[in-house]
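U., I forgot to send this yesterday:
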Amino acid sequence: MKNSIINLFFSVIIILLFASSMQAQIKVGILPRLSASEMTEMFKPLVSHLSAELGQEVEMVIPKDFDTYMKMLKSGEFDYAYANPNVYVEAKNSLGEGVEPLVLAVETGSGKTFSGCFLVKKGSPLKSVSDFKGKKMIFVDEKSAGGYLTQVTELVKAGILKKDIKLLPFAKKHTNVALAVQNGVADVGGIRTQDFDKIKNTVNIPDVIILTETVAIPNWPLFKLPKARQEINNKMKEALLKLQPGAAKSISVLKSAKLDGFVETSDSDFDSMREVAKAKAEF
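Result:
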């Protein structure tokens, strides 16, 4: 009888410890603009940094595509999200006050903003956005800021609407867009400008060039979601702001992610992204 009570006691302790460790795990959903393996390698040092700073395990969650990411975000499977500014604005609209940006990424080469671009093949007769009427165009995803929405803004500015082009099915990955242009499947492709060099190092696209870039929009925020615990939010923000642009620690932690650091931000910084969303509605 005594042994049974002791065994029961230790079983309860183990269950409580397991439950506590599960509760302590902090999940950060990272939008998969590149392959899961690439994104994992890029952000592994940052996740290790956050785990050490917070004293709790931080798990990096990289779903297979944009659609899966949005479903997981909206169903509460992440505590925090690192995603493009359009995803932040959409999350804020759909989930409300529980969504707030903590920091803004400063990207190597582009800073606090980034742009999309239009890809064509070398020797293409297309010289400007106004030449795109009637052409086959391919983009990443309807929620991709750098691979669709910024390009839509430029199309609308040029007086080109969806009915004026041959819009191919979304490619889901920036790499697939570049390959579609290389292989002649599409006349024009749209991706995030800063991903072009990464893509050239991973796939064979010798004939693909950037024709022109789009309007610049705020870089990616890391933002809290309704599931995030209040006692962690400030610690998370402090841990990220320790990685200031130019600091030695930032270089060691963020080099693989092609980031220089993180800076303060607020919801109003994303009003320009909301203007881009209006262009999409017109498109």
